Amino acid sequence: MGLLRIMMPPKLQLLAVVAFAVAMLLLLNQVQKLEESLSKLERAIARHEVREIEQRHTLDGPRQDAALDEEEDMVIIYNRVPKTASTSFTNIAYDLCAKNKYHVLHINTTKNNPVMSLQDQVRFVKNITSWKEMKPGFYHGHISYLDFAKFGVKKKPIYINVIRDPIERLVSYYYFLRFGDDYRPGLRRRKQGDKKTFDECVAEGGSDCAPEKLWLQIPFFCGHSSECWNVGSRWAMDQAKYNLINEYFLVGVTEELEDFIMLLEAALPRFFRGATELYRTGKKSHLRKTTEKKLPTKQTIAKLQQSDIWKMENEFYEFALEQFQFIRAHAVREKDGDLYILTQNFFYEKIYPKSN
User: Fold this and answer.
1) What is the DSSP letter of 322?
2) What is its main location (predicted)?
3) Which tens digits make up the pLDDT trace of 39-68?
4) Which strands sit side by side in the sheet containing 158-163, from one edge to the other?
5) How far apart are CA 95 and CA 93, in angstroms?
6) Within 10 Å of residue 232's Cβ, how many Cβ atoms?
7) Helices (H), the chain
8) Which one of the listed residues 57, 140, 224, 286 is annotated catalytic?
């Protein structure tokens, strides 16, 4: 017997298509409302957690007006650049905070905008410097560098960061927007459904893989000035280099993350005691992996490397890498393939006047 085909009249077909389109729009609208509700719920939970901590400190007794101990007054800001192993590193801070007795706070900006409004800058600086209940504190979020000195504060926070080879970072971000990663595999991503490879995107001159998308690490270190976000600005790169040297305690690279953690543990044990061992053995400390990521071809890499934007971002990356390796060379020694932190290499002598 032949297959029985039921053909719908053209008008009914059109009506069915329209009905399906309307249903999809309604569904997308509901999804958007659910996401907005989830965002409000997350903010409410965060406010509740903060109130609980403040109440707990109140019950324990108010802190003295006298200045906090130097280590207890310490604040670290990790203004993390996207797709540089920032989640992997932040997980270590969360895992250690209870044991090492400090607070971890995520700076969640609307739509992940790295530039704060002037009024939010004032609020943020005030929170960081005067929120004693949250000290010692480790703040992290996708925000560009903010100069606390311009707000007249007496003690600035300690800035740290990690950067990555600019093309590798862009490739990782490209596939992350489409396929997500193994950290939250069920979360729907912005470009989900787009199967185009990074190579195909570059060959077609797509916007998601354009050289302009490389311009991110420089402005994150440059800061909140308008020129920082002017793609290809030589001034922005020079300012980013200045800030890296003068305003950041330590800047590591994704490719040598364990060494970065080891140096932090040696220099800032109040926060990072136990971090190196945790990174080596902890399940959550390993690098999260972007799903479906395909390495670009040599032709694709060569095409991107022709742009002045890549040359500047790569120059900044090489500058950061050289600085990190210089610091590491003066802090560790290698033996049998392993690195060891140097013990104290200075002492005091000829102390006068002599005590009786």
Assistant:
1) H
2) Golgi
3) 667 666 665 665 565 555 555 554 444 456
4) 103-106, 137-140, 75-78, 158-163, 248-253
5) 6
6) 16
7) 10-60, 86-100, 118-130, 166-179, 198-204, 217-222, 234-246, 257-267, 269-272, 275-281, 298-304, 308-329
8) 140
8 Å CB contact between 83 and 189: no
The answer to whether 293 touches 175, Cβ cutoff 8 Å, is yes
Q: Whole-model pTM above 0.70?
A: yes
Average pLDDT, the chain: 86
Nearby residues of 300 by Cβ (< 8 Å), 6 or more positions away: 198, 199, 202, 203
Could you read off the pLDDT of 74-131 as tens digits, one per residue?
999 999 999 999 999 999 999 999 999 999 999 999 888 999 999 999 999 999 999 9
- State the Cα torsion 191-195-197-203 to the nearest 10°: -90
C-alpha span between 250 and 162 (Å, rounded):
9
Which one from 48, 57, 103, 142 is the annotated catalytic residue? 142
Q: Is 106 a catalytic residue?
A: no
What end-to-end distance do the CA atoms of the chain give, in Å? Answer: 116
